# Entry
Amino acid sequence: MKIQPVIIAFNSYGWTQRAIQSFFNYYPDRKVLVVDNNPPVSKDHLTGRWSYGNIDFKDSQQERKWLDRRDNLVVIDHPEKDTKALRHCDGLDLARDWCIEHGADAMFHFEPDCEFRKGGLLEKVSRKLEEGYWLVGVHRIKAGGGIWTAGSTWLLDSPAKKFSFCPRPIGRDSGHPLFDEMFDFNLKKGRWRTMWDTGQKIWYECESKRKAWAFQDSLGVKRRRKTSRIVGFFHEFHGTLKEFHETIEEPCSLKIL
# Structure
């Protein structure tokens, strides 16, 4: 089972470096695909679905320089980044297509505000995929159903190949016999009562066939920053909205265990 690790970089200086460093602490021989969703330095406020907003262009360029200096990363740009602001889901779609083109069986996605605190996660995920699951995640979302995209692995010969990761109307999916069991409208707000969030349409297609698995139920609102002890995976949740204050190691000084 060839599992390709993937991370989307967007205004996440410091967080991206920590996440990647922690991954290589346990998987030093793997290569990580990085989709650089940061805007070009010459485009301060691109128009599109929304603007890039308050991006620190200096940090974005420093992040890219750090990524380019690493031999064990494959860094690609989204082909539309010069003309429109990109969403996280756009990066996921691009990564999925790249993984298929390069012969991967599955795509493992982690986010810049994630951290690996022990090894063995990819091995556990691989075993679940070999059991027949199409989607394997670290955490489930109790607030309305689903599996967190951070820490999720998507079998590529599955609905992940057919559908986009981007939000889309729920529409007739709500008529599925298992819909009420999988999805709680009472816990959804605003547009998310009628729209699938990032990756949730693919989750729904997998879950409705009993092909989705999570190692742990939701950590809950008060525990969102805790590590999943089962697999040693930490997710800050919206961490990249905060300034990163830890020391960023340069590639030449990284300690690989």
